[in-house]
Design brief:
By secondary structure, the chain is an alpha/beta fold. Strands 1, 2, 3, 4, 5, 6 and 7 form a 7-stranded mixed beta sheet that branches. Strands 11-10-9-12-13 form a 5-stranded mixed beta sheet, with helices on both faces. Strands 16, 17, 18, 19 and 25 form a 5-stranded mixed beta sheet that branches.
């Protein structure tokens, strides 16, 4: 098999094109492709002669023998035939299909034959140093692409193989100004080898590769042949807007045709927060429009043009950034006036731009209307090259500020039964005809370049006609889009009535039938449907002439006892020590009493009582403050500490909404908790346990292990996040406005232990050993295997990882998280990564996970090197689940940031009690702030819970 530069260049554009050229397939014809080929040959011939003409006599050569290169004395040579071998004879690995061998197999050698455009010989720099050879390639275009550099690297690779020494530099001479670009070819050698391996495997297969249309098809000589086959197969690549990655994902699910894709469309209900945003583009809806041959409209698109429409279409030569024809259409229908502003040379470009601005000045409130991004680039470039000043600048700013890009209006809102949203496809579908069937953007470039050579009036007329037709097509689309039928006003179908539109709100057709809105076919059905909504068990049935007031059932009368008399009096012990300066005081300031509604806990009962708490107050001369009243009590409060403890036990521990708890207290205990009292009560309790949360966070960050995770929070006014930091005993929740790493770096500042987390990128900013959650990784792998059921290469990748991880889990199950027993698996990890580095995947998921594994190599198996480090993030996951189950239920919707932070303090205490095996209700009733001290006292049996007040040994002066 033989590989030539023609085949290598074709493979860079399309594997099918390479295979067809190698099998000498007859081209179907393409005007632009033929013109490009002639331009290449002409430029190459001209540049060779120019290069030789500038070389001193005797210093140049034509078609020298490749075998004599090392002994050559010339400076420049052209048309040098070079031959080399690639494949098994040289030890090169050529990879075939993934199902055969993921490691790559050796096939027969391929012969590479090229004719170098030119070679520059640089004499030896000294004794023992060989002469250097620089390959030169000629390209007619002014702008180069990566493929051009790869072609030069291909020349350098073959030349280096033949010489047996490295070729470190190459040159490209290109464009009208004969610009020379120097390219360091060794950086591209690896890419060239990969492409050669794929070409060898492609040519060794007698069957043609899978046909895939791409952007190069418009420039290919096999365009007609390939498109005909794609249409017959109904191939997905016909959808121009679909990327190769999206197409591969669909194929991995068994979807290969547009018809199959059309059946996957499922309308959905958009959340309120996204209703102001444009709907994303649905390839499945595009496929549905093609299958049904109907135009589908999403939402309620409205095209508003406030001013006089000016339809704009520009022709240019992208290779030279030169705009030579500005088409302007002003008016409607037969009365429209078409202006064609023509530039003979680049110097005339500024002249036609000024003429364009002068035209805009004659229009009242001009609004530019165009189709696509080419005109957007044109306007931006012209503003920079020829800045408009004065009145011209004002008119231009006004015209461009309200400019309408019809393609942007179509995208995501209008789905036409055409494979692309190009102007030719959309306007042609609506009945517009171009005067010349061969009029395309690429052919206009050919016409312009040929006009520059001949100045033929016929070519100029063809360009004028093509440009004017594009302007007229924009006018037609603008007229139709402005008359689209609206879902709210379906009767507005004047000009658009001759087209079939399907208005689709993306509502779910599979919703429960009982919840669907009833739409009566006859007006007589509407009152019957309204009657079906009456409550027959509660309301009388009769013809209703006016709106009736529904009577609420009378609630059972609950006898309310006054709380003016105390059932129990608790005198707190006198404390003369100032809590701030720790000095004793002898200055009494009288007594203070708090009459509170509270609960008395028995062994198997809870009773409601009115409890009077008495405190002796003192005055501190040093601090100038009064003290003596416990911080949990004050004269304005209404509820005792036992009642508060039970309230937050039911909300935080049991997950009962606050409103439901209030109803329970009112019905069973005759304790009324107004809705407004919850906020002040929460603030007071959260402030009391703020110190508890701070100590928990200190214990977590001072340890050797931290689990971290985050989730979204529903807050009023803005989005928020909740971060959780935990170990095996303590849990702390923190509220944050963002998901950035700022919170993480602030909380874990100075932490040098092991951080266990998921794969969120913010955790990578931590300067400490990390263990990524392997359960997250396994879930992702499993989901992608299910999403790609036919990807055998990726399945084998997942099986290899499962085989590596399973023995580790068995060791943990037998010996626990002990480094002594887990160290033996480090060799298997090194071998796994060694094998992974040698594999070259073609599957998109496999390539993606290979990069993911290599990026996180030092973070996936940290648990093998430490004692007590888990391989998953279950502790943080459990804490997050506790938040989602309880906090989101009791918050009853979005919370304010202040309420969020206060609730998270109480949830931190609750979850820590659960992790440590401490009863949350008992801890709240005790009045303790240190959970560890309370747990220790309970273990020793020294802590007795009071019946009413949380202080030990109160003086009972009650009944």
């Amino acid at each position: 098999m033989k590989i030539t530069p023609s085949l290598f260049e074709a493979f860079l554009k399309c594997p099918t094109k390479c295979w067809l050229r190698s099998n000498s397939e007859t081209p179907s014809g393409n005007t632009y492709a033929e013109w490009v080929q002639s331009q290449d040959e002409s430029f190459r011939t001209t540049e060779k002669e120019r290069l030789l003409a500038g070389t001193p006599p005797g210093e140049s050569a034509r078609s020298p023998a490749a075998e004599n290169l090392k002994t050559a004395k010339w400076q420049f040579a052209v048309d040098i035939p070079v031959r080399s071998e690639f494949g098994s004879s040289r030890g090169d690995k050529v990879k075939t299909s993934p199902s055969e061998n993921s490691q790559g197999i050796l096939t027969s050698a391929a012969t590479i034959e090229i004719c170098l455009h030119a070679v520059e010989r640089i004499p030896s720099a000294g004794r023992g140093q060989p002469a250097q050879f620089v390959p030169i390639r000629f390209i007619y275009r002014n702008k180069l692409t990566k493929d051009d550099k790869l072609l030069l690297a291909f020349d350098a690779f073959v030349l280096s193989e033949m010489l047996g020494s490295a070729v470190s530099l190459g040159k490209i001479i290109h464009g009208d100004d004969h610009v020379t670009l120097k390219v360091k070819t060794p950086a591209l050698t690896g890419e060239v080898r990969k492409r050669l391996a794929k070409i060898t495997a492609l040519l060794a297969n007698p069957a043609a590769p899978d046909l895939v249309l791409n952007r190069h098809c418009a420039e290919c000589e096999f365009q007609t042949r390939c498109r005909k086959i794609a249409v017959e197969k109904d191939d997905l690549s016909l959808l121009a807007a679909m990327s190769a990655k999206e197409r591969q994902k669909l194929r991995s699910k068994g979807i290969f045709t547009i018809t199959q894709l059309s059946y996957t469309f499922r309308p959905h209900h958009r959340p309120k927060r996204q209703r102001d945003k444009r709907e994303k583009y649905h390839h499945s809806l595009k496929a549905l429009a093609i299958r049904e041959q109907k135009i589908h409209i999403v939402g309620s698109p409205e095209l508003k043009i406030e001013g006089t429409p000016v339809y704009l279409d520009v022709e240019g030569v992208p290779d030279r950034d030169f705009y030579y024809l500005i088409g302007v259409r002003i008016g409607h229908g037969d009365s429209a006036i078409q202006h064609s502003l023509w530039a003979d040379t680049v110097a005339d470009e500024g002249k036609i731009w000024r003429e364009f601005l002068a035209l805009l000045e004659t229009v009242e409130q001009p609004v530019l209307i165009y189709y696509g991004s080419f005109e957007v680039t044109f306007l931006d470039q012209m503003k920079k090259r020829y800045p408009a000043q004065g009145e011209n600048g004002t008119v231009l700013d006004r015209a461009t500020s309200g400019a309408v890009n019809l393609l942007a209006f179509v995208y995501g809102q209008l789905y036409f039964p055409a494979h692309s949203n190009g102007l030719k496809d959309v306007a042609g579908l609506l009945g517009f005809l171009w005067p010349d069937p061969e009029g395309t953007g690429l052919n206009s470039i050919v016409w312009r370049r040929r006009w520059e050579e001949s100045e033929s009036p016929e070519l100029q007329r063809k360009l004028f006609a093509y440009n004017s037709a594009d302007c007229a097509a924009c006018e037609l689309l603008s007229t139709i889009f402005s008359q689209l039928p609206s879902p709210e006003k379906p009767e507005n179908r004047t000009e658009a009535e001759r087209f079939t539109f399907v208005v689709d709100h993306l509502t779910n057709p599979f919703s429960h039938p009982d919840w669907q809105t009833f739409v009566g076919a006859l007006p007589e059905l509407d009152p019957i449907n309204q009657a079906a909504q009456w409550d027959y068990q509660r309301d009388r049935i009769y013809l209703r002439k006016k709106k009736q007031t529904k009577q609420e059932p009378r609630n059972a009368q609950i006898k309310k006892n006054p709380f003016c008399q105390a059932d129990k009096v608790v005198a707190f012990p006198v404390n003369k020590v100032c809590p701030k300066c720790r000095r004793k005081s002898k200055h009494k300031r009288g007594k203070e009493a708090c009459l509170l509604q509270d609960f008395l806990f028995g062994k198997s009962s809870v009773k409601r009582r009115t409890v009077k708490h008495e405190f002796q107050k003192f005055w501190c001369p040093n601090c100038k403050r009064t003290f003596g009243v416990d911080e949990r009590f004050h004269s304005r409060q209404k509820f005792g500490w036992n009642l508060i403890a039970l309230n937050y036990y039911m909300t935080m521990e049991l997950g009962i909404p606050q409103q439901v708890v209030a109803k329970i207290f009112e019905r069973l205990f005759n304790v009324s908790m107004p809705s407004g009292s919850g906020a002040s009560l929460r603030t007071r309790v959260a402030a009391y346990y703020e110190e508890t949360k701070r100590k928990l966070l200190e214990r977590i960050t001072s340890g050797s292990l931290v689990h971290a995770d985050e989730t979204k929070a529903r807050k009023m006014g803005a989005a928020g996040y909740v971060w959780v930091f935990t170990n095996f005993n303590e849990v702390v929740y923190l509220n944050s406005e963002s998901r950035e790493a700022e919170v993480l770096l602030r909380v874990l500042k100075g932490f040098k232990g092991v951080l266990v987390s998921d794969f969120y990128a913010a955790y990578d900013s931590m300067d400490c050993p990390q263990q990524k959650c392997l359960i997250h990784l396994m879930r992702d792998l499993n989901n992608d295997v299910l999403a790609n059921p036919y990807d055998e290469e990726f399945k084998q990748f997942v099986l290899d990882f499962a085989s590596l991880l399973k023995p580790m889990i068995d060791t943990i199950d037998r010996h626990g998280l002990k480094r002594h027993f887990l160290n033996k698996h480090l060799k298997a990890v090194d071998q796994f990564y060694k094998n992974l580095g040698h594999k070259e995947f073609t599957s998109e998921p496999a390539l993606s996970y290979k990069q993911r594994f290599e990026k996180n190599r030092d973070k996936l198996f940290t648990f093998l090197k430490h004692d007590g480090v888990p391989w998953n993030n279950n502790n943080a996951e459990h804490a997050i689940k506790a938040y989602t189950r309880r906090f989101r239920a009791i918050s009853c919707g979005a919370s304010t940031p202040k309420a969020m932070s206060e609730n998270l303090i109480l949830l931190s205490v609750c979850q820590t009690c659960k992790y440590m095996g401490v009863d949350f209700l008992d801890f709240l009733r005790s009045g303790e702030k240190d959970i560890h001290a309370f747990a220790e006292s309970r273990r020793r049996g020294r802590h007795r819970l009071p019946t009413s007040a949380p202080e030990a040994a109160p003086v009972d002066a009650g009944k």
